[in-house]
Sequence to fold (122 residues):
Amino acid sequence: MTVSKTQLADAYAAALNKALGKAWDHKFSRRDAGKFLDLLWPIVGDLALKDTKKTAPGSVPLGHLGRLKMRYKAATKARKGTNPFTGEPATFKAKPATLQPRFTAGKALKEEAAKYSKSKMK
Fold:
């Protein structure tokens, strides 16, 4: 099942109400939770791209969920090769250097996945 942004905002609003609702004397709505999430993504993106001038940029921890890392992929030169289907010579285009986001699951997420697979996928 793919979770929509609305479903994520509903779940986040429920968690905010459970954790902070009484302390802050406020009932968080789906709209409030959506605004929090909209503010979170640019911050995580900016932090992930912070040290991208290095060949090994840093990473952003996302709590028990995992870690977001930016991977530097070096440029490649144009090269000659052979089409495996026809045997004709071919030229492969050069590719520029790029940064690619990579997510590594945390220990807690891996343990939850293992529990789920043991109970549901017998």
In short: Residues 54 and 72 are 9 Å apart (CA to CA). The radius of gyration is 22 Å. Residues 5-24 form the longest helix (20 residues). The chain has a mean pLDDT of 87.
